[in-house]
Specification:
682 residues; eight-stranded antiparallel beta barrel; 41 strands; 32% strand
Length: 682
């Protein structure tokens, strides 16, 4: 076994590999750019070596710099994580020439399966069903349009060396094919150093289901069930679960055996993932093979008990798999939510800045002990696990140079419904401040009827949130639970305020029992608070009563309450006369006033936001790539106005309505902040 491993990556996956290496007694070496000098993976590793400036194409994906770090450290093996150099055959070849072990598949398998065009040809030769498409390289936008018409719209334009949703566009017509080809080519070049593009038919209403395979260098290969990855945004997975609520055992077996056969056909060893598109009739089509560890691997680990990183390291060290197919048992259900530094209220555009608060829910283990990939006994009913894979910490920076993922929050439970409920509570308990993030959206998905039913496709987000995410409107029953809790919490805060020292003599302040709980002007509920040592009973004026107990003291930013014996977890912010409450994807201001205060508040004029309807505002921090219009030009609804690059992604900003350009305040190369005015209209 190795004594020292270098992790050629950053962020949460570097931290993840370090944890397993430490468990195995293996020393670890981290590499870092200027932007990551204070990163979590740097502090966790036994050693850390600087490799260059922040941009990945000047540090993390420069093979020579990584090789220099390997030589300095004396590492015997390298784990590439995912992204960056993880599927780069030249990197694997350089390691082999240096006598360093690559913790991944042989370079021949990377070349064969890591390139999407080549992998499709191999799959076709092996009689594996594949999605119709053009396998050759495409030189320019006009050729892309011609090929797209031959295949038939809609088509998917993809980077051959791509991954993680980078360099991918869906085109429904010629104009989108031209535009998508150029954007995909640009993103592929900047993210992977390879701008080759191919086109395939976009299968409407598909499910994205993938099979985890594990092979050694002795000819052994197994599959560890599937992962449902259909909830995606811009081809980037957001929610994953294992197993899939859609597959039956016969389909799972057929997909698994085909995935293993495909891996063996290219002499694969290590962990890998074979991705399929599955239609409503359970017909499946080979999409691609990822010759690396997947982002979503934790859900497979949670239902099988297999540490995939450990298995990769053991296979790389020449060991045989200690697990056979008969040993693989899928126990319970696991769900993963990807927490991104993306603002859902701004079209999920990237957000950067300092994490002024970062408090994930407490991680817990569940079920009996695991050994050799098998559960030892049945998991107790109601037992749950919470796992959070992360690469950040409170006070750290979310950089503009890398992927915006902050953490991967996972829950496990004996059943899918229990795993979903555990995830709801975990999301409500996750405190993140300082940046825009998608926690509210993830909470909304966990409560969405279509997700709960398991009847979703890769079009879920586009279909259910066609106009973007604008928050969640809670049902009245949920609002009443929040109102009752806030009333009880407000009374606790009021009592504390009456005990402040230094009061004037003969000015004792009494806390009343009658209050009005308001959610803006539209909802106002008079309540009576009857408190005792154990909690409070809240009586609404229509006669409904709720019993509230919990753990909250003034100043706490998380309230863990119980309302009528049901848990309620809320993120709490102090505002004048009440609280800002965030729960289940909703973000509401709750005012608690005396009846007289509420009467006067109703007479106050409502403050309206400023009118920005004649301005194009920058939706996220980013760099102007190009301006597509000029002063005096008339633009139509949906017309491209400019392109902003952020987090390695190009974002095209379009006109919301017809208008005439009056003023342009920025040009290519300018760095803009959130809400900075780019274009003004007459």
């Amino acid at each position: 076994m190795f004594n020292k491993i270098l992790i050629a990556n950053r962020g949460e996956i570097a931290c993840r590999v370090i944890k397993t290496a430490r468990k195995m007694g293996i020393g670890t070496v981290a590499i870092f750019s200027d932007a990551d000098k204070n990163a979590l993976h740097v502090s966790m590793a036994d050693e850390a070596i600087h490799i260059g400036p922040p941009p990945a194409n000047q540090s993390y994906i420069v093979i020579d710099k990584v090789m220099d770090a390997i030589r300095q450290s004396g590492a015997q093996a390298v784990h590439p994580g995912y992204g960056f150099l993880s599927e780069n055959a030249k990197f694997a070849e350089a390691l082999e020439a240096e006598g360093v072990v690559f913790v991944g598949p042989p370079k021949g398998a990377i070349e064969a399966m890591g390139d999407k065009i080549t992998s499709k040809k191999i799959a076709q030769d092996a009689n594996v069903s594949t999605v119709p498409g053009y396998m050759g390289l495409i030189e320019d936008a006009e050729e892309a349009v011609k090929i797209s018409n031959e295949i038939g719209y809609p088509v998917m334009i993809k980077a051959s060396a791509g991954g993680g949703g980078k360099g991918m566009r869906i085109a429904w017509n010629d104009d989108e094919a031209r535009e998508g080809f150029q954007s995909s080519k640009n993103e592929a070049a900047s993210s992977f150093g390879d701008d080759r593009i191919f086109i395939e038919k976009f299968v409407t209403q598909p499910r994205h289901i993938e099979i985890q395979v594990l092979c050694d260098s002795h000819g052994n290969g197994i599959y560890l069930g599937e992962r449902e990855c259909s909830i995606q945004r811009r081809n980037q997975k957001v929610v994953e679960e294992a197993p899939s609520p859609f597959l039956d055992e016969a389909t799972r077996k057929a997909m698994g055996e085909q995935a293993v056969a495909l891996a063996k056909a290219v002499g694969y060893s290590s962990a890998g993932t074979v991705e399929f598109i599955v239609d409503g009739e359970k017909n499946f089509y080979f999409l691609e093979m990822n010759t690396r560890l997947q982002v979503e691997h934790p859900v497979t680990e949670l239902i099988t008990g297999v540490d995939l990183v450990e298995q990769m390291i053991r296979v790389a060290a020449g060991e045989k798999l200690s697990i056979t197919q008969d040993d693989v048992t899928l126990t319970g259900w696991a769900i993963e939510n990807r927490l991104y530094a993306e603002d859902p209220y701004r079209g999920f555009l990237p957000s950067i800045g300092r994490l002024t608060r970062y408090r994930p829910p407490q991680e817990t283990a569940a079920g009996p002990m695991l050994a050799n990939g098998k559960w030892q006994g049945d998991a107790p009913e109601g037992d749950v696990a919470v796992r959070n894979d992360t690469g950040v910490y409170e006070g750290g920076e979310i950089s503009m140079y890398y992927d915006p993922m902050i953490a991967k929050l996972c829950t496990w439970a004996p059943t899918r419904d229990q795993a979903i409920e555990a995830m709801r509570v975990a999301l409500d308990s996750f405190e993140v401040e300082g940046i825009g993030h998608n926690l509210p959206f993830l909470s909304a998905v966990m409560d969405h009827p279509k997700f709960i039913s398991g009847d979703m496709t890769t079009a879920f987000i586009a279909e259910e949130y066609p106009d973007g995410f604008e928050g969640v409107e809670l049902a009245e029953a949920d609002l009443r639970r929040i109102a009752a809790s806030c009333a009880a919490m407000h009374r606790v805060a009021e009592i504390r305020r009456t005990r402040v020292s230094g009061r004037m003599d003969n000015h004792e302040r009494k806390v009343g029992t009658d209050w009005v709980v308001s959610f803006g002007r539209e909802i106002q509920w008079p309540v009576k608070v009857d408190a005792d040592q154990d909690g409070a009973t809240i009586r609404f004026d229509d006669g409904q009563e709720m019993r509230v107990t919990g753990d909250w003291t003034p100043g706490d930013q998380l309230a863990v309450m119980t309302v009528d014996d049901a848990p309620l977890v809320m993120k709490v912010g102090k505002i004048s006369g009440g609280f800002r409450i965030r729960n289940r994807g909703a973000d509401r201001k709750v005012q608690i006033r005396t009846p007289r205060q509420a009467e006067l508040a109703r007479l106050m004029p409502e403050k309206l936001p400023p009118d920005t309807s004649k301005m194009l505002l920058c939706p996220m921090p980013g760099l102007v790539v190009k301006i597509d219009v000029e002063v005096g030009q008339e633009v139509q609804e949906g017309q491209a106005l400019c392109t902003i690059e952020a987090m390695k992604m190009e974002n095209i900003l379009r006109a919301e309505r017809k208008g005439t350009v009056a003023k342009i305040n920025a040009g290519p190369g300018d760095s803009l902040a959130v809400d900075e005015v780019i274009i003004e209209f007459e």
